[in-house]
Amino acid sequence: MHYLFIGFLLLGIAAAVIRALAGSPEALSGTMQAMFGAADLAVQVSIGLIGVLTLWTGLFRLAEKSGLAEWVAQRVTPLLGRLMPGAVAAPVVNPSGNENTPSDPMAPVTMNLSANMLGLDNAATPLGLKAMEALQTRNPKPDTATDSQIMFLVLNTSSVTLVPVTVLMYRAQQGAADPADIYLPMLMATTASTFIGVWFTARLQKIRLLDPVIMAAAGLWLLLLFALGALAWMLPTEAAATLSSSIGNGILLAVVALFLILAHRAKLDAYSTFIEGAKEGFHLAVKLIPFLVAMLVAIAVLREGGVLDLLLNGIRVVAVWAGFDTRFVDALPVAMLKPLSGSGARAMMLEVMQTHGVDSLAGRMAAIMQGSTETTFYVLAVYFGSVGVVKLRYALLCGIVADMAGLLTAIFVTYLFFG
Distances in Å between the alpha carbon of 159 and those of 192, 269, 364, 406? Predict the structure, then answer.
C-alpha cells in the first residue's frame, strides 16, 4: 500500500506538471480540485454506508451466534478433507503452544470458508488466522508453506460468496436502480475463480479431483449455474438482468429470514444481539473514511494527471485493432488493483461508478470484478505472516491464476447479462 499510495500520487503530480509545462497550466489547478473533490467524495460515501452497514453487521451477528456458520462447516468438511489431505493425514510435528489451537485443523478451516461464503467478513479473518495456525501444527518445515496451507489460501482468496453484501451495499449507496441485478453474474465470476484456482493447485499437488464427493459437489453447482446461464443467454438483455435481480433479491431475503429463524430457535435475544453487531457496523463505517480518502485522492490525481487515461487508451487501441468492444476498458483499473489492494480496488470501483454511472456497463463490470475474488497479496501477507511462513513456494502463482479466471469471467458475464 505504501508504494501504491506514493506511486499514484507522484505519477499523477509529475504528469500534471509535464502537461502544465507543455502549455496546459490548468492541469495544476485541475489536479488540486480533483484531490479536494475525492476527499469530499470519500466522506460522503462512508456516511452513506452507515445505515446499510449497520443493518448487515447486526444481521450477521445473529448468524454467528445462532451457529449457522458452524452448521455449514460440518457439511463441507468431507469435501475439504479431500482437497487438503495433508491437513487430515499429517501428524502434529510443530506444536503451537497455544491452548486455543484446535487439534483438528479442518474445524477452523471449514468455519473460515463457511464464514466467507455467508459474507461474515468480521468473523472470517480471525477464523482464517486460527485455521492457518492449526495447519501450521502439521508443518514439518515451519518457514515453508505446506500443500494444505497453499490450497487453503487459494480457497480463501477465491472463495465463493453467496451473500455479497459489501458490493451490493456500495451499489445501493451510489444510487443503483436495482443493486442486486449483478448477483448472478458475480456468482458465476467467483465460481470460475474458485474452480480454476482449485484445479490449477490440485494439478501442482497431484490431488485426484476425480473423486465421487468432489465431482458430485462440483457437478451440482456447475449444473445449477449452467442452467441459469443458459436461461440468461436465451433471454433478452433486460429479462436477463431481471432474472439476476430476482435471484439475488430472493436469496438475500431468504438469508435474512433464515438468520432470524435460527436466532429464534437458538433462543437468542434477537434484538439485543442485532444491536450488538450493528454497533460494530457504525464504527466500521467511520473507520473506512481515512482509507477511502487516501486511495480516492491518489486515484483522482492519477486520473486527472492523465496517467490512467494514457494507459487505458493504449489498451483501448489494441482492443479496437482486435475488433473488440472497448467498453470493458473503463473497468480494467479495478482488475489491475484487485490482487494488490482491497481498499484500492474498492476506491477504483467507486471512481468508475462516479465517472461512468453505477448502472453503466463499466459500473456493473467494476462491481462484478470487485466481488469475483479476494485480495491475494493481502491474504498471503496476513495469513502466512501470522505463522512465520516466509517461503511461499507456488502460492502466489496459484492465487494469481484464480484472480485472472475470476476477472476474465467477470468481463464475459457482464456482456452476457448487460451488453
Answer: 10, 31, 20, 11
Distance between CA atoms of residues 206 and 85, nearest Å: 11
User: Is it the case that residue 28 has pLDDT exceeding 80?
Assistant: yes
Q: What is the pLDDT of residues 359-375, one digit of tens each?
A: 999 999 999 998 888 77
- The answer to whether 197 and 401 are in contact (CB under 8 A) is yes
Q: What is the pTM of this model?
A: 0.74
Q: Which spans in 118-164 are helix H?
A: 121-136, 147-157
- CA 219 to chain centroid, in Å, comes to 24
* Contact (Cβ atoms closer than 8 angstroms) between residue 165 and residue 212: no
Find residue 317's DSSP bridge partners: none
Q: From its phi and psi, is residue 388 left (phi > 0), alpha (psi between -120 and 50) or beta?
A: left
> What is the DSSP code (8-state) at residue 91?
P
Nearest to 358 by CA among 382, 392, 330, 384: 330
pLDDT at 69 over 70: no
